[in-house]
């Protein structure tokens, strides 16, 4: 399994970070009355928006990691910002575009999947 590059931030910026719990239920509509619900599974994929500020060198490192491993393989090396627990299986669902923030500073938001 791949490991998040040591030269990149291991925690997101607080401003813009968000987490979506997994959808573990299923709803079925019926002809009359309330919808029926049931549990589909106990675990599921959590989604996170992971904003970071990087240098130009770190942007290159992130690009290379994303192209080589992060977009299709799970990796470890990140800590959950809410729980403080290491996340053992993470995958990059989508990488946002770099935004110039100033001299040698670029903002980017990754959409991560936290795998069960």
Structure description:
- The model has no long low-confidence stretch (mean pLDDT 88).
- This protein is mainly β and 116 residues long.
- The protein is 13% helix and 41% strand.
- It contains one helix and eleven strands.
- Strands 2, 5, 9, 10 and 11 form a five-stranded antiparallel sheet that branches. A two-stranded parallel ribbon has the order 1-6.
- The longest helix is centred in the middle third of the chain and has 15 residues, at 56-70.
- It has one domain.
- It is elongated, with a radius of gyration of 17 Å.
- The protein has one helix at residues 56-70; strands at 2-3, 18-20, 25-28, 36-39, 46-54, 75-76, 78-79, 86-87, 90-95, 99-102, 105-114.
- Strand 3 and strand 4 form a beta hairpin.
Question: Which shape, going by the Cα principal axes?
Answer: elongated
Strand fraction: 35-45%
Low-confidence stretches: none
**Gap between N and C termini:** 15 Å
Helix content: 10-25%
Element string (H = helix, E = strand): EEEEEHEEEEEE
Q: Could you tell me the radius of gyration in angstroms?
A: 17 Å
- Helix-strand makeup class: mainly beta
Strand tally, please? 11
Q: Sheet bearing the most strands, described?
A: 5 strands, antiparallel
Instruction: Return the domain count.
Output: 1
Q: Count of DSSP helices?
A: 1
- Average pLDDT taken over every residue: 88
């Amino acid at each position: 399994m791949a490991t998040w590059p040591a030269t990149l931030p291991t925690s997101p910026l607080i401003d813009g970070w968000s987490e979506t719990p997994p959808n573990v239920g299923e709803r079925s509509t019926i002809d009359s009355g309330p919808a029926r619900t049931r549990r589909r599974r106990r675990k599921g994929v959590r989604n996170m928006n992971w904003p970071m500020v990087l240098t130009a060198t770190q942007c290159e490192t992130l690009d290379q990691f994303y192209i080589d491993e992060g977009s299709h393989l799970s990796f470890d090396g990140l800590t959950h910002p809410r729980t403080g627990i290491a996340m053992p299986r993470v995958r990059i669902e989508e990488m946002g575009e770099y935004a110039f923030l100033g001299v040698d500073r670029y903002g980017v938001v990754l959409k991560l999947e936290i795998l069960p």
